[in-house]
Design goal:
Layout (H helix, E strand, L loop, with lengths): L2 H57 L3 H5 L34 H18 L11 E6 L6 H13 L5 E6 L7 H5 L7 H5 L11 E2 L5 E4 L8 H5 L2 H13 L3 E6 L7 H7 L4 E7 L5 H9 L6 E7 L19 E2 L1
Parallel strand pairs: 1-5, 1-6, 2-4, 2-5, 6-7
Antiparallel strand pairs: 3-4, 7-8
Helix pairs in contact: 3-4
Length: about 325
């Protein structure tokens, strides 16, 4: 056999060997893949069986043992609402640093009547005695100023908390009076744009004071005040925190029917009367629109006193009997 023929035979033999090795490798890879798939399938089946077994065990497990099983933590959404900074000592307002100021003394007398009505013997005869509406006969008679000061005074109590709600959605002024700002408020809650009223309840630098602003303007704002959702909200406020006074700064009584609807939800009403401006006929008409079973009080606002130290003060008077 020639050298060339021998070389061709060796080449053919080498090619045959490479082909055999390639086929053997492909067969081995195929077998390995099948084995891996089989193992993966067995693992999935095994895990599913274990899950069913665990669920069955938990279903039959006593409650005491079930409570001890591992519970994975649920992510908690951080409350990103701003904390409203309340001024500690502003002229004409209840001072949080000087407890014996004239304004403090005046509102201390007023809040004692409110607290006695809410938590004293009369409370049993009132519907929602811890719900207090502060209103007036007409706009501009000082109801918001008095609502804010009453809230600040109650916030100084050691064992009581207060929630101030700006329900005068037509002319909201609580936030301006306190010189603070916030986002969503009562209107967003009544419109269903927030899932819970707590989302529009803002903490302040006073641990005992929280505020709900009026929120955005809406063409059906007065109707929303008389809605079923408003009723449910007030009832929740009345029962959720038994030690809390809830103050609603409401629209004036005259010309706005929805304020009278709110009066049926509150246990107490404080009507702010401006000396020298509010007419007796207006006061009489306003009183007739209130719930006859609620405790009623009056604050005579902007009452000139004797001139002391070059300044004129304000006079506040409260008559809190159930009529």
């Amino acid at each position: 056999m020639s050298t060339i023929e021998k070389a061709l035979q060796r080449k053919k033999a080498a090619e045959a060997e490479r082909k055999r090795q390639l086929e053997a490798k492909q067969q081995a890879d195929s077998s390995a893949a099948s084995e891996t798939q089989s193992k993966d399938k067995e693992t999935v089946i095994s895990r599913a069986a274990m899950a069913r077994s665990k669920a069955s065990q938990q279903e039959n497990m006593p409650l005491a043992e079930l409570a001890e099983t591992e519970v994975r933590p649920v992510p908690v959404t951080v409350d990103e609402k701003p904390v409203l900074e309340i001024a500690l000592d502003r002229e004409g307002f209840v001072s949080l640093t000087s407890s014996r100021s004239r304004t403090n003394e005046e509102f201390r007398a007023i809040k004692r009547k409110v607290l006695n009505n809410a938590f004293g013997p009369l409370a049993k005869t009132l519907n929602n005695p811890n719900i207090v509406m502060v209103t007036s006969c007409n706009p501009g008679e000082g109801k918001t100023y008095n609502a804010v000061n009453l809230a600040l005074s109650i916030a100084l109590e050691q064992d009581k908390t207060v929630l101030l709600v700006d329900a005068d959605v037509l002319r909201p002024n609580v936030m301006n009076t306190l010189q603070v700002s916030a986002g969503d408020g009562l209107m967003e809650h009544l419109l269903g744009e927030v899932s819970d009223v707590s989302e529009v309840m803002y903490n302040t630098t006073l641990d005992t004071l929280r505020i709900i602003p009026a929120g955005k303007t809406h063409h059906l704002s007065t109707e929303l005040l008389a809605s079923e959702k408003m009723y449910e909200t007030v009832q929740e406020f009345a029962t959720r925190y038994p030690d809390r006074i809830v103050i609603f700064d409401t629209p004036p009584l005259l010309g706005i029917n929805e304020t009278a609807v709110l009066a049926n939800l509150a246990g107490q009403a404080i009507v702010v009367v401006e000396e020298g401006r509010t007419k007796l006929a207006d006061i009489s008409t306003a009183i007739e629109s209130l719930n006859p079973d609620m405790a009623k009080g009056f604050i005579l606002n902007k009452s000139q006193r004797l001139k002391v130290g070059g300044d004129y003060g304000y006079g506040y008077y409260y008559s809190g009997s159930k009529e």
